[in-house]
Amino acid sequence: MINNYKLGTYVLRFFAYILLFILLLIVIVPIWLLIVNATRSTTEIQQGISLLPSTHMLENYSFLGGRGLDLPRGFMNSVFLAVASTFVSVYFGLLTAYGIVVYDFPGKKLFSNFIVILVMIPMQLSIFGFYQYMSKLGLTDNYAALIIPGIASAGSVFFGRQYLESMVVWDLIDAGRIDGASELSIFHTIMLPIAAPGAATMGIFAFVGSWNNFFTPFIMISSLEKYTLPMLIQTLRGDVYRTEYGAIYLGLAITVVPIILLYVFFSRYIVSGISMGAVKE
C-alpha cells in the first residue's frame, strides 16, 4: 500500500511538472519570438519562424528614428507617468485601506462593498464622463489627468484592505497612541514598514498597469511630444510602416523588456506580498 501510494504521488508530480512546463512554454515562447523578430529584417521574418536572433536590430532602430519616432523621449514619458501613478496609487490606496481596517464609522461595510463594485467596472464604461470632467478642469493633454485619479484607485484600496486585515498589529497602534503619536504618524512609522511587502506588490501591479495602459492616455493626450511608448508604437500601424515588420517587432519589444526586467528583479515581492496577505489570523 505504501509503495503504491508513493508511486501514485510520483506519477501525479510528474504530470504536474509536465503541465507546468507546457504552461511555461506557452508564456515564454511568444515573448522570445518577439525579441528575436526585433533583431531580424522584414525579409527574414517573412521567410518563417526562427528561434535564433539575427543582426538587423540596429537597422530596425534606425528605421524607427528616421521616421520621427523619438523612442527615448517616449520611454522617459512612460517612466515618469508609471512612477508617479504608482506612488500616488500605492500611498493613498494604503492610507484609505488603513482607515477602513482600523476605524469604525457609519456605512463602513457599504463603503467596502462599493469599492468591490468599482473594481469590477472597466474604465471603458466611464471614459466619456471622465473625459468631460477632465475637460471642464482643463486637464486634457495633461499628465495630471492620468496621475491624480490614482488617488482613488479602487484596486489598490481593495488589495490594501485585504492585506492590512491580516497584518494589523493592534498593540503597536495602541502603544503609538499612548505615546502621543498622531494617526498619520502611526500610519507612516508603524504600519507602512509592516506593510512594505504588500506595498511593493501593489507598486509592481500599479507600475505594470500604468506602463501598459494605452487606452486612457490615447484619449487624454494629444501632443506628440507627450506620447508614451505604447502610444508611439501604435503609430507604426500607418501605411508607411506596414511592411517593416522588423521595426514593428522592435518597438513592441522595447515596451515589453522593462516589464520582464521588473518581474525578474521583484518577483519575490509579488509572491511574498500575495502569500502574506492571504493568511488571516
Draw up the topology in text.
Blueprint (H helix, E strand, L loop, with lengths): L1 H36 L4 H6 L9 H10 L4 H32 L5 H13 L6 H10 L7 H4 L6 H14 L2 H9 L4 H12 L1 H17 L2 H6 L8 H6 L10 H33 L4
Strand content: under 5%
Rg estimate, integer Å: 24 Å
Oligomeric composition of the shown chains: single chain
Q: Strand-and-helix sequence, N→C? A: HHHHHHHHHHHHHH
Description of the structure:
With 281 residues, this protein is mainly α. Helix 1 runs antiparallel to helix 14 (245-277), helix 5 crosses helix 8 (154-167) and helix 11 runs antiparallel to helix 14 (245-277). The chain folds into 2 domains: 2-59; 69-241 and 248-277, MetI-like fold (Orthogonal Bundle). It is globular, with a radius of gyration of 24 Å. The chain is built from 14 helices and no strands. The chain starts with a helix and ends with a helix.
